[in-house]
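Show me any protein, keeping tokens residue-aligned.
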Amino acid sequence: MQALGEEKKKKLEALYKELVDCGENLDTCKELMETIENLDQGEKKLEALKTAVATIQRVHTFLKKDVSADLSTPAEFEDRIIHFSDIQELMESVSSFPIFTPPCAPVMNAQDPNSATGTSVKVCWSFFSEDIVESYQLYYKRVSNDTSSKEEEEFKLNVKETYCTVAELVPNTQYEFWVKAVNRAGVSSESERAVYMTAPLPPVIKEKVIQSCEYSALVQWECGNINPVDSYTVELSKVTGGD
């Protein structure tokens, strides 16, 4: 197989040289014809005569060349005996090419602690198969507890990694996520769905309605979230007056 490739290379190089020579001959012929046509257009007869003599010499030299339109490089290749080792090497090189099939479905990961803000959440998933994956399609929609309302709108993101930070979400709200793997052969089936939740907005203390006495204080605040909050953590700190 290697010898056949070398013979092909030599034939192409020889053919290229013949084509270049043919082009040069055509250019020379065209130049001589244009020179002959312009001989009687010159104003100075002496210069025209000198040009004519030089042109005649060039024409004689050109006509002595062995110019042929036939290509001397034969198109046929030599008969060669192909060894079994060459065929085996070719088959192994073909079998080494990757065969693409649609990938398996990824696996959604549970939400990590402190992975969300009020308007964003970091979604992660895993891919345990050896299938080739070029990208992922991440889908999500808002979880609605109202069964009578219409279906929530679905959103889609194209992702290269196995994680994605999804932004522009509603605070203190649950979202359902699922993902598909993609390669040039197609798209996998969707993964199992996982529910992630954004963080609630910070409460706002009502300073004007705070009541206190010597050993206690009544503090009120506004939630600021659309959905109910599970619980609150109240932190106290002692304030000392300066001199």
Summary: The chain has a mean pLDDT of 79. Residues 1-65 form one domain.
